[in-house]
Design goal:
This protein has 401 residues and is mainly alpha-helical. It contains 15 helices and no strands.
Length: 401
């Protein structure tokens, strides 16, 4: 295999950054615009549910596609089609009206984002063959987080000049530029990708294999349970933050954007620490799980916007440390030949708790105050963590001579 140019990561990281920047603008717009339009935390939570459920349900399909088709082509299709969907969604709104066009285009873009994320996940071992995989994950997530840092700021800035339709069109342009950066990187720094192996058998066989691995591979089921717990708190945080900041605490859109940016900055700091310091996987898992749990409790019972912001930053920042821990564990557990299909199934199961959290906000949030829902779902996370810890201790004692 020819040596990859030392400049290759720059174009790859730039494409990742721009794609995440555009995706984050959409994630910022949906709960804010829906809450401003309806003045209802419940509708904001339901919009989050509609927006996120398709992207997580798509993971098994996208994972199986990554084992069957060239991943670079899948990634480029993901970026080009997101740009087209943004344009079509704005055109639909201009013709027929209704805030549902924003939620719908974001949901479709979410499915395409899933395809892009799975393609990148499968590409990483081939693009970066040197160094610790934990360090590679931390560095790629830092590029991802830079997009998250600037996304809310860019969205808030653009909303000062344009309505949300104009911001969505600017997002489409970002997706086009991200695809251009990826094309330039691939042209100047080609990689000899492995030829995808199309498995024999029925179309549902990859999903059966993925589910079998999820159930039987040691540690993978427990890893899914604790990840679902973290995603419950992350989901309720994302679904309710616009209502909490602009509704309960009566802050402005700019404060909401600043809070989102603060969470992303905290994430970059956490990821820099992972890249620089030699954390063990067990320490990363326990520290991040504990900090997300504490952050959820602070958000639920905090009495003011600054206290809420502290909990928000803990959840958003340490969620990505937990993500590095989970992805590293998965890479050690799952057989390479089944990595795409199994990872797709596992990520779907990990993340279904996020739209479930949004649905819980939609069903049970009283007017504009979802604090009780945040407290309840944080309690569920604590119970799931305790159950997995007790099961692991019981298994360890049983395995001891």
């Amino acid at each position: 295999m020819p040596a990859i140019s030392k400049f290759a990561p720059l174009g790859f990281y730039l494409s990742l950054f721009l794609s995440r920047l555009a995706d984050q603008v959409l994630l910022f717009l949906v709960p804010l615009v829906v809450f401003q339009t309806t003045q209802s935390a419940a509708w904001s939570g339901i919009a989050f549910f509609v927006e996120t459920l398709p992207r997580f349900m798509a993971y098994p399909v996208c994972g199986a596609l990554c084992d069957r088709l060239p991943t670079l082509r899948l990634l480029r299709v993901s970026q080009v089609y997101r740009a087209l969907v943004c344009g079509l969604g704005v055109a639909g709104y201009m013709l027929f009206g209704g805030i549902g066009w924003l939620v719908g285009l974001s949901a479709v873009c979410g499915v395409l984002t899933t395809q892009g994320m799975m393609a990148r996940e499968t590409m990483l071992p081939h693009v970066f063959r040197e160094g610790r995989f934990v360090t590679v994950l931390a560095k790629t997530q830092m590029a991802d987080q830079l997009g998250m840092v600037l996304g809310p700021m860019l969205a808030a800035l653009l909303l000062n000049w344009w309505p949300w339709q104009g911001v969505v069109l600017a997002t489409a342009l970002l997706f086009w530029v991200a695809d251009g950066a990826l094309a330039v990187w691939n042209r100047h720094c080609p990689v000899n990708w492995p030829v995808p192996q199309v498995p024999a058998g029925a179309w549902w066989q990859p999903y059966r294999t993925g589910l079998s691995h999820w159930w039987h591979l040691p540690g993978l089921f427990r890893l899914t349970v604790v990840t679902a717990g973290v995603n419950l708190v992350l989901g309720v945080t994302m679904a309710s933050s616009a209502a909490m900041v602009t509704g309960v605490f009566q802050q402005t859109d700019h404060v909401y954007a600043l809070l989102q940016t603060g969470g992303a900055v905290a994430t970059v700091v956490v990821l820099l620490a992972i890249a620089r310091l030699n954390f063990s996987l067990n320490l990363m898992g326990r520290l991040s799980y504990g900090c997300v749990l504490v952050g959820g409790l602070i958000m639920a019972f905090g009495a003011g916007p600054w206290v809420y912001a502290l909990g928000f930053v803990l959840v958003i920042g340490f969620d990505k440390m937990f993500s590095v821990y989970v992805r590293s564990r998965r890479q050690l557990i799952i057989p390479p030949g089944d990595y795409g299909k199994t990872t797709g199934v596992v990520i779907m199961l990990n993340n279904l708790s996020q739209p479930a959290a949004g649905l819980a906000v939609g069903l049970f949030a009283a007017k504009a105050d979802p604090s009780a829902v945040i407290a309840a779902l944080t309690g569920v996370m604590a119970l799931l963590g305790a159950a997995v810890w007790a099961t692991r201790e019981r298994s360890s004692r049983a395995a001891s001579p």
